[in-house]
Structure formats: C-alpha cells, structure tokens
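User: Hello! I'm new to structural biology and keep hearing that structure can be predicted from sequence alone. Could you demonstrate with Xaa-Pro dipeptidyl-peptidase-like domain-containing protein? Please show me the input and the output so I can see what each looks like.

Assistant: Of course. The first part below is the input, the amino acid sequence of Xaa-Pro dipeptidyl-peptidase-like domain-containing protein. The second part is the output, the predicted structure written as tokens.
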Amino acid sequence: MPLQPDGLTFVISPEVDRTRVTYKNRYGITIAADLYTAKDLDKSGQHPALIIGPSHGGVKEQMPGVWANQLAQRGYVSLAFDPSYKGDSGGEPRFVSSPEIFMEDFSAGVDFLGTLDYVSRDRIGLVGICGSGGFGLGAARMDTRIKAVVTASMYDIGENYRNGWQHSWSDADRRAEMDRLAEQRWADLDAGTVTYDPIFPEEVPPAEVQLDPVTSEFFDYYVKSNDRGYHPHSQGGHIAVSHLGYMGYGGLRYLEDISPRPVLMIVGDQAFSRWFTEDAMEA
C-alpha cells in the first residue's frame, strides 16, 4: 500500500483515534509514539493496555501501527513506538542498535501508559514484532509490571549476531567477527565518523539477481518500489559496531523469570525465522 498522507503505511480505522505522544526513557532519550484508542473508549473507566514494538529497523508507522489500530478496536489502549535512535525518537548518533536500550524502551512505554488515568496499571502487556519480540521477552524478564507478552515472528537479534544464522558459527567464526568489528571501531575512530550496515535499496533488484529467501522477504516489505510497507524512516541499516553489544547479550536466557505471566508466541509454519521461536520455547 502506498504511504498515506498521514505518514502511515496502512489506513487507520474511522473508529480509532491516533494521538502523537512523547516521553523519556531512563537514559533520558525522548521516545516518540502513537497512542491508539477507540473513539468510544470510556475514559472514566480502567482499561488494558499494550506497548507494541517494531521490527529491528522498523518504525511505528509500519507493523506496530497496524497492530495498534486493530487492537484499539478491541478495547486495548495501544502504544506503537519508535525505538531510541530510530524514526522520530531521539538519540545520537542515529541508528545505534543496543539491546539494553531497546528493552528499556518497552519499560518506558509502561511508565507512560501508567500515567494515563484510564489505563489499569495491573493490565499492561506488550507485543514484540520480529526483532522487538526478542527485546520484549528480555524486558518482561526484568520488569514484572509487564503482565503478558505476545511475540509475532520473533527474531532473536542477539543470537543471530553471536552465533550466526541457525547457530552456524563456530567459536573461531565468532572470534573472527569480533576482531573484524574491533578493527572497524578503530577505523571509525580514526575517520571521525561511523560506518553503517547496508540499508534497504529504493528499488528491488532485477529478477536475474538471485536473492536468498531472507533478503527477498525483507525487500518485499521494506523497499520503496514495492509500496507495501515502505517508510522513509525505516532504512534497515545500523551502526556496524553495534553488533559488538550483542556478543555478550543473553536476551533469551532465564526466560523462566517471566513465569507465571502468560506468553503467546505466534509464528508461521513457513516462516524463515521460525527457529528463533522454537529455540525460545525450548529455553
């Protein structure tokens, strides 16, 4: 669907109000979010609420907004946010990727929702889409104010950066990657700049270019020429040395700390990322 005049990648329901809000996380970074509520919501009462996080590199106007729009129609106060360093949220330099800060962004959303008179503090949950699924599980481990967790096509960014796709890296592979990133950090320091991972192209490569299934699916949604989920704030790239922060990050360890709070993990039977959810279920 083409980008809408209101900046969304979908059409908002006429039964839903969308309000732009900002608040700070505990690192002092300003988080930009969209608050979705049903137009007929009785604000004299107390209602359940959800914080909805985007894919790794995505923004609130994409999948989080789609979910928030639907959930608001079902009575949930729904908060779709841009993570720190992304979209309309603050943080410099842009496009840092940090597991600790991305988990904190969920807790900051709990803080904000808890200030609303019509939100029940005892009924706040989260939805983590793709990369935010892993960060959301990590946030719920530590923040018991989060009463329920939903992940959709969860992607464990830390596992992928530490051990490779489907655990394909050896210890030697990981050490080589750490050495490469360490040298990149020196290079960035000497150049006085930062280096970014490749970003999504504006055009899908021609058919004769053979793309792996993961890249092909990402391009189908994010690339501008497809007009499906493209948003100018969602460029896909991150500061390259951010990967080092994931080498020691154990986001899906100690998931038992979430119990007895409920967790719902949704994944398609053909999803290339299915193995992340299966790993989490076995953790």
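User: So the tokens describe the shape?

Assistant: Right, they're a compact way of writing down the 3D structure. Reading them back into a model, for example: Residues 16-166+246-282 form a domain with the Rossmann fold fold (CATH 3.40.50.1820).
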